[in-house]
Design brief:
There is one protein chain. The chain is mainly β and 186 residues long. The chain has three domains: 60 residues, SH3 type barrels; 60 residues, Nucleic acid-binding proteins (OB fold (Dihydrolipoamide Acetyltransferase, E2P), Beta Barrel); 57 residues, OB fold (Dihydrolipoamide Acetyltransferase, E2P), CATH 2.40.50. 2% of the residues lie in helices and 52% in strands. A hairpin with a 5-residue loop joins β1 and β2. The two termini are 40 Å apart.
Length: 186
Amino acid sequence: MYTITNLKPGVTIQLEDGKPYEIVKSEHTQMGRGGGIMRTTLKNLETGATLNRTFKGEEKIKEADLEEIEAQFMYADKNSFNFMDLETFEQFPLKSSIIGDAHYFIKEGQNVKLLKFNDRPITLKIPAKVTLKVTETEPGIRGDTVSSATKPAKLETGLTVQVPLFIKQDDEVVINTREMTYVERA
């Protein structure tokens, strides 16, 4: 069981409806003489829908019973992404709406971590940082030395991010998956 002090982004909980949720945002507020409250934005791991929920200081919150498995991303089609459990070799799809922006951080043939709830795969677990190859970017303009100058770069998965001028095509860059931003050259 969690208390409101445990409710931080990335933590998974289970609400009264029996569904698993991931905390996307949390903000603690102290209520004068009374106890504190935690305002949260939750993402339903089965549907991808978000909701706002406030928890009171004395409230106990159940931890979601999720199992992490190793799977391989096989291919994507129009509506879903198809994976294979590396232990059982069972293949299964996950809807595009559930994968969301995580598709920018996976490549065909790549091993990934999936979360199962009630023996059913429900969502993809993406690391905080991934390394991707730059497939398209314009050359930096000589003499353009503004310290924070950036340019757009298209990555191998289709994501476009702003990168420093010194990044060239075929460079590998580290991307922050939460904010979808450039971190450093790999």
